[in-house]
Amino acid sequence: MRRRRAARGWGWWLPQVALLLALAGLVLVVARTVSDNMERQDMVLSLGFLRSTAEFPIAESFLAYAPGDTIAWAFVVGLGNSIALTLLIIVLSTMAGVPIALARHSGHMLARTLAGGFVDLVRNVPLVVQLLFWYGVILMAFPPARAAAQPLPGLFLTNRGITVTTVGITGTALPMIVTVLGGLTLTLITAWRGHLHKASLCTLGTIVAGSALWIVLDLGLARDVPHFDRFNFTGGLTLTPEFVAVLWGSVIYASAFAAEIVRGGLDGVPRGQWEASRALGLSKRQSLRLVIVPQALRMIVPPMNSQFITILKNSTLALVVGYPDLNFVANTAINHTGQGLEGVAILMLVFFTLASAISLAMNRLNARVQRGGA
Amino acid sequence: MRYVRTAPEPVRPAPPRPKRPALRSIVTGGANLLTTAIIVLFAIRTVPHLLSWAVTHGVWSGDGAACREAGACWAFLRAKMPFILFGIYPEAERWRPILVVLILGAATLWSLPRAHWTRATLAFWGFAIVASLLLMAGGRLGLSPVPTSAWGGLPITMLLTIFSLALGFPFGIVLALARRSDMPVYRWTATALIEVMRAMPLVTLLFVASVMAPLLLPAGVTADNLTRALVAFVLSSSAYIAEVVRGGLQGVPPGQRESARALGLGRSTVLLSIILPQAIRKALAPLTSTVVVIIKNSSLVLVVGLFDLLSAGRVSLNDPAWPTPYAETYLVIALIYFVICYGFARYALHLERTTQGGEGRP
């Protein structure tokens, strides 16, 4: 944007001063009204309620929680649920979006039509309706626990959720887990820096070190098979209908949008690029990897940024099926304590921070992609 | 001997792209055959189940008892459709929301063709909105008054969408202009407002509006649920519209402003009759896509207890005289939304295609 430096007389200063004054006046009036109202209702502005005990339950969470913990911890638990849900949706929907985009691009008439119909259908129905629909389907179509459906061995579908067999490690596995996680982090860092050769060495090292520790520490595997126990399943891992409905519905919804973004990126690369790279003697796979994808990524990353922020925002819809995300917890906490202003402030601050974090990460990725590095 | 061309060579059309026959694409080649096989196998596994649920075992008429131990309960929807479409509006007065839906629907359809974008249409919209509010609220012209808490169903969805657009549009333009202003205070204020609104989930915003309303309003003034929700909607839609309009403004070449200024036009004239019309024309197609977003968002009012299409459907499921056919109800509601949103999405596509060709023409 070009801005003229000249002509900064009254016509430039006066409107700005006027706006500043008007904003200050607005803030004053709002503050007066709010403090008047709070005084009338005997409300005190304080964050002390965060330290009081939360007397409400949180149906499920990734972090440990029990009624009686502090409200601050309840907020953290809700935040953990929100972040976990958002990350899962981001990863799964992006993974699902790519094949859908490729199907829409393919020469296979049936696949193209189906993928196109799927995208049109999913994008034009509100997500809330879809979440409620899937929740209803799980509650209605899945059998009661005593007649659980078992589509795969160790995977049970009931109207109380999906129960899966989990595999755990027996023995003192901590040194191995730390080693493997460290190796993976190192691999990711080197890959991100563009040293692909070093990264593959890191991967190899991680595998070797992990296996060696496995043998040295004499670790083993144990399956935790869920079994039916009078009323419900015990053992294994049970995903509640609420969580499954939110995750499934959101992934379906977001994957249609991701597919459109990916398709837009692929369409944005001129056909000449394909033809030229094939004419240069590159194979189909090479031209895709070296010519098409790098250019398409430049068009995919910026809209993906807003898409991921939308996913974060849409994760708050979990509350319509009763999955306790941050918004849900804040809502409950405010209803219990009456500290509306503080709760709302925390909520807004957290969402703004999370959205900014996504933006920051995506902008860094974007800078790399636009530079054409790695 | 020289050959001088006097007339330009006629532009030859591009060679036709080879069209792959549809049928052949399904059955030739190993990968294609595999894809077909997977799709067909999946269809064989699912379609008969769905058909038997929806059609052969579906219940199309009767009451709650007929629906037990059967497939899809379409009879429920036949019985509950008026409630889903018009909510808890008093039954004797139901002709009023029906008329509102017809008026607003007709106004929308009438405004679609480009030839109808005239001042008369705008005036008709003004009339339609006033008439709809009058019909819904009553209290005048011998109509019995109906409080907004009893409004419901499709009219709520339509009114929320129209008001978010009609009020969000001017705000959005002001915000977009302020964000591109050369005065930092305006630029910062607009940027902060837009970014905060865009970072905030609408559910949170609705929730904030309902929690904060009693605190923000001076003593003695109250706002009903509909007004609170509407404020949240207008705030968020103006932020979205501002970004779309900003895109349009960026698309207007700087030469337009410079040449208009060189012709001696004043700053405000340049803005109002040179820059904005071009910017808005460029922004029309994305604006129509924003309409789809707003319509879809209107379903969120269920979190603040308004009876839109979706909440009415949800409430109708609580009737103990019927089993609870969740899937069927939400399918039908999804279908209603789909028809409206898909229509607008196609229309946006059509606008995009036609404006590309007619760039620069008035």
Automatic annotation (TrEMBL), chain A:
The chain crosses the membrane at residues 71-103, 124-142, 162-189, 201-223, 308-324, 344-362. Residues 79-362 form the ABC transmembrane type-1 domain. It comes from the Bacteria. GO terms for cellular component: plasma membrane. Keywords: Amino-acid transport, Membrane, Transmembrane, Transmembrane helix, Transport. It holds the Pfam family BPD_transp_1. InterPro entries: ArtM/GltK/GlnP/TcyL/YhdX-like, MetI-like, MetI-like_sf. GO terms for biological process: amino acid transport; transmembrane transport. Belongs to the binding-protein-dependent transport system permease family. HisMQ subfamily. PANTHER family: AMINO-ACID ABC TRANSPORTER PERMEASE PROTEIN YHDX-RELATED, MEMBRANE COMPONENT OF AMINO ACID ABC TRANSPORTER. This is Binding-protein-dependent transport systems inner membrane component. It comes from Rhizorhabdus wittichii (strain DSM 6014 / CCUG 31198 / JCM 15750 / NBRC 105917 / EY 4224 / RW1) (Sphingomonas wittichii).
UniProtKB/TrEMBL annotation, chain B:
One of its GO terms (molecular function) is transmembrane transporter activity. The chain crosses the membrane at residues 21-44, 95-112, 124-143, 155-178, 199-217, 229-249, 283-307, 327-345. GO terms for cellular component: ATP-binding cassette (ABC) transporter complex. GO terms for biological process: amino acid transport. It is found in: Cell inner membrane; Cell membrane. It holds the Pfam family BPD_transp_1. Keywords: Cell membrane, Membrane, Transmembrane, Transmembrane helix, Transport. Residues 154-348 form the ABC transmembrane type-1 domain. It is a multi-pass membrane protein. InterPro entries: AA_ABC_transptr_permease_3TM (IPR010065), ArtM/GltK/GlnP/TcyL/YhdX-like (IPR043429), MetI-like (IPR000515), MetI-like_sf (IPR035906). Coiled coil: none annotated. PROSITE patterns: ABC_TM1 (PS50928). Belongs to the binding-protein-dependent transport system permease family. HisMQ subfamily. This is Polar amino acid ABC transporter, inner membrane subunit. It comes from Rhizorhabdus wittichii (strain DSM 6014 / CCUG 31198 / JCM 15750 / NBRC 105917 / EY 4224 / RW1). The lineage of its organism: Bacteria, Pseudomonadati, Pseudomonadota, Alphaproteobacteria, Sphingomonadales.
